[in-house]
Design brief:
Strand order of the largest sheet of chain A: 1-2
Number of helices of chain B: 6
Shape of chain A: globular
Oligomer: heterodimer
Structural class of chain A: mainly alpha
Strand content of chain A: under 5%
Radius of gyration of chain A: 19 Å
Number of domains of chain B: 2
Distance between the termini of chain B: 35 Å
Helix content of chain B: 25-40%
Order of helices and strands of chain A: HEHHHHEHHHEHEH
CATH class of the largest domain in chain B: Alpha Beta
Radius of gyration of chain B: 17 Å
Shape of chain B: globular
CATH architecture of the largest domain in chain B: 3-Layer(aba) Sandwich
Number of strands of chain B: 11
Largest interface: A-B, 22 and 29 residues
CATH superfamily of the largest domain in chain B: P-loop containing nucleotide triphosphate hydrolases
Chain lengths: ~270, ~220
């Protein structure tokens, strides 16, 4: 209980930072007022009323959007790892059910990711409401939910992955790997310019970051589809949810196998962890 | 009131070998260890003492051979040794928790003891259960004492202590030696690894020497 409280507080603080940065850097109501839908689209990559367009500056902008997320992943990516270092001796000798321990830790990471994503989004919205005239609309509420759900699942996935790599390589190398992979996915968004070709289209569909860009989505809900007004054909919420959830499930199940069979050869991959 | 006396147990290592990335860290280790006895393991740093404890406890698998407890095979009939108290290397506890919070959390896993037993264990090692400092603020000696407290608080049948007197002052060393002897009187099987010959000389009933993963024939320790 004590550990959860402390880590939850840190996740909320990083979320607060993320929300402030997002609101200040990426929410731009060019006419002085902004709809909630337009605001959420900007938080997920759009520029003004234009969907994310992978020019170099916008790719860099997308990378900048992810910096607070990377900060959280770096912190959350040591939660399970630090506990594993202690757990590997003191807990596994008391409860050899590593599976149960692992799923409990995974649930903790999920909780922290949800807290981070929720605080980040709420902070961005509230701060924008203070600065601008934010018009709440039905598509905006839906997009907020989509944004929260998709980002929560993806952040959970990346954070669990960072934890697992930390157990093998230590936190710094693990962070390089996981953040590096996401940076590649961000750079690969440029494939949207040739999405009519088969291979780029497939690569985009399986690119987890591409499935977070709400400005590329279509929707069967007319009001929502009109609010997004995407020229691209390949993305919508349910397939995006399937893609990010699949990555999450794969990571969680692979992690379980890893934890079950890992010999506990050392208590810490580096001096005192992070 | 629960009876904390240990029933007699036999822990056997039968020709166990362990290789890690092609390097042999344990080589054809054979042991027969009984309750109510303190076994000392001496060897230089890197000789394999800690790895042996990891293998005997079940924290790592062995490349060949088997470890049995009263005939049951470790990692087959059970995952780790039941009712084990252990200290390995300098593994830390949770830094943001106090001493008693750390031990309470660990005790909540098996639910074998209550708060009073936890407090008693903390006092036994010379610490104050009411100390509000978090673990990260402990000195090395305090951390070692708390680790010992967690190893003995649930009155385990088997206790494995890797360098138990590390970081302790003279009074602390004396106290820990008395604690270990008291656990032996209770009937626990105790394995102590140390490169400190005085610890082994004072505590151990039988001594094994370990070098490059090879455990040599035991000696009766003349105390």
């Amino acid at each position: 209980m004590y550990r959860i409280r402390y880590d939850t507080l840190v996740a909320a603080l990083i979320g607060l930072l993320s929300g402030v940065l997002s609101a200040m850097l990426f929410v731009r109501p060019y006419t002085g007022s902004i709809t909630l839908s337009e605001m959420v689209l900007q938080l997920s990559g759009s520029r003004g009323t234009y969907e994310f367009n992978p020019s170099l500056s916008e790719i860099m902008g997308m990378f900048t959007r992810f910096i607070p997320i990377f900060l959280f992943e770096f912190y959350g990516g040591t939660v399970m790892y630090r506990n594993f270092c202690t757990a590997s001796i003191y807990i596994f000798t008391r409860n050899p059910n590593r599976s149960r321990w692992y799923f409990r830790e995974t649930a903790r990471v999920l909780l922290l990711s949800v807290v981070f994503a929720a605080v980040s989004l709420i902070t961005a919205v509230l701060l924008s409401m203070v600065q601008y005239d934010v018009i709440t609309n039905y598509p905006g509420v839906l997009l907020s939910i989509y944004h929260f759900v998709l980002f929560s699942i993806w952040i959970t996935t990346a954070t669990i992955l960072l934890n697992l790599f930390s157990i093998i390589f230590g936190t710094h190398v693990a962070a390089l790997i996981v953040i590096g992979l996401q940076a590649i996915c961000i750079a690969a968004l440029s494939l949207i310019e040739i999405e009519d070709q088969l291979l780029p289209a497939v690569l985009l569909q399986i690119n987890p970051i591409a499935n977070l860009i709400l400005g590329w989505f279509h929707s069967r809900i007319p009001a929502l589809d009109e609010a997004i007004f995407s020229p691209h054909k390949g993305f919508s919420f349910v397939p995006a949810l399937f893609v990010v959830s699949s990555y999450c499930l794969l990571t969680v199940l692979s992690g379980r196998q890893f934890i079950l069979h890992r010999d506990i050869l050392s208590s810490n991959a580096e001096l005192d962890g992070v | 009131m629960q009876n904390w006396m240990v029933f007699s147990m036999l822990l056997c290592a039968k020709d166990i070998c362990k290789k890690i990335r092609g390097k042999t860290v344990l080589s054809h280790v054979n042991l027969e260890l009984e309750s109510g006895t303190i076994y000392g393991f001496v060897g230089r740093n890197g000789s394999g003492k800690t790895m042996l404890f990891r293998a005997l406890s079940g924290l790592i698998s062995v490349s060949s051979g088997e470890v049995t407890l009263d005939g049951k095979v470790l990692r087959k009939d059970f995952s780790v040794l039941p009712n084990l108290g252990i200290i390995l290397e300098t593994t830390g506890l949770y830094p943001n928790l106090t001493g008693i919070e750390n031990l309470s959390y660990l005790a909540s896993i098996q639910k074998r003891i209550g708060l009073e037993e936890i407090k008693r264990a903390i006092r036994r090692v010379g610490l104050d259960p009411e100390d509000k400092r978090t673990y990260r603020k402990y000195s090395m000696g305090m951390k070692q004492r708390l680790a010992l407290a967690q190893a003995v608080m649930e009155r385990p049948d088997i206790i494995m202590l890797d360098e138990p007197t590390n970081g302790l002052d003279e009074d602390g060393v004396d106290m820990i030696r008395k604690l270990i002897l008291a656990e032996k009187e209770r009937g626990a099987m105790i394995l102590v690894a140390s490169h400190n010959k005085e610890d082994i000389h004072i505590l151990a009933d039988q001594v094994y020497r370990i070098s490059a993963g090879v455990v040599s024939q035991r000696e009766e320790n003349v105390q």
